[in-house]
Amino acid sequence: MIKLGVNIDHVATVRQARKAAEPDPVQAAAVAELAGADTITVHLREDRRHINERDVRILRKTIRTKLNLEMSIALGIVKIACAVKPDQATLVPEKRKELTTEGGLDVVGSERKIKRVVKRLKSAGITVSLFIDPDTKQIEAASRARAEFIELHTGCYANAKKEKDKQKQLSLLAEAAFFAHTLGLRVNAGHGLNYCNTQALIEKVPHLEELNIGHSIVSRAVIVGLGRAVREMKGLINKKNRDKQ
Ligand code: PXP
Questions:
Q1: Contact call for residues 52 and 21 (beta carbons, < 8 A)
Q2: Looking at domain 3-240, which of 3.40.50.300, 3.20.20.70, 3.10.129.10, 3.30.390.50 is its CATH number?
């Protein structure tokens, strides 16, 4: 059974738009777990644009499933991870100006540094996953770095417009998953997955253990939840109108 990791970063994005207390990602995590999420994923970015340290520390105490912390390999973040001890750390590249994670980690280019970070996280009891493009050289480097998991970057598949390009990306992902599995790596996937493109991925790509999905789920929550939120406020106002008459 392929599992679902729900990325709740964008709940915190809405909170930070007002620098307010709500919506609280801690509450969102509990709702997601009750609805069947197998993992709660958050990205503690160096610029703290959405999730902050308070969130990660409380989530560590409240999550009943599994906490997956997406993180860069910056020393300060690695220290926090070793102290908080999420169940899993997913190492991602991070650029200040990007809107979201762009592309996979260059494990080949920073192999020694990544190896050191993997070792440090693993010795703190944290399972390590590397977010990489479906690229043979990156997969081999992830294996040499002794990561337990890779998370295949599905962004190019999700962004492909033409059917033949989608099929090409699916083939690349399928070959990458197969190759990683032969090297003993376990395989997750994520980025840009939504209500239209997830089933085809599951059909074509072997060995997937978990999908990490954020933007599409939080977006859908806003749309399917908005009617109820408006009805509740309208009800409060109507009650006061009646009381005043
Ligand atoms: N996996 C990784 C490594 C990510 O960085 C992200 C985005 O934070 C996701 C999965 C989820 O992507 P999306 O929000 O597009 O579903």
A1: no
A2: 3.20.20.70
pLDDT digits (tens, 9 = 90+) for 79-117: 999 999 999 999 999 876 677 777 899 999 999 999 999
Asked whether the predicted pLDDT for residue 16 surpasses 90, the reply is yes
Give the burial class of 11: count Cβ atoms within 10 A of its Cβ; 0-12 exposed, 13-18 middle, 19 or more buried: buried
* Ligand 1 pocket, residue 92 CB under 6 Å: yes
232 in active site? no
Active site residue 10: no
Average pLDDT over residues 213-221: 98
pTM: 0.96
What is the C-alpha separation between 130 and 149, in angstroms, rounded? Answer: 6
C-alpha of residue 101 to centroid of ligand 1, in Å? 7
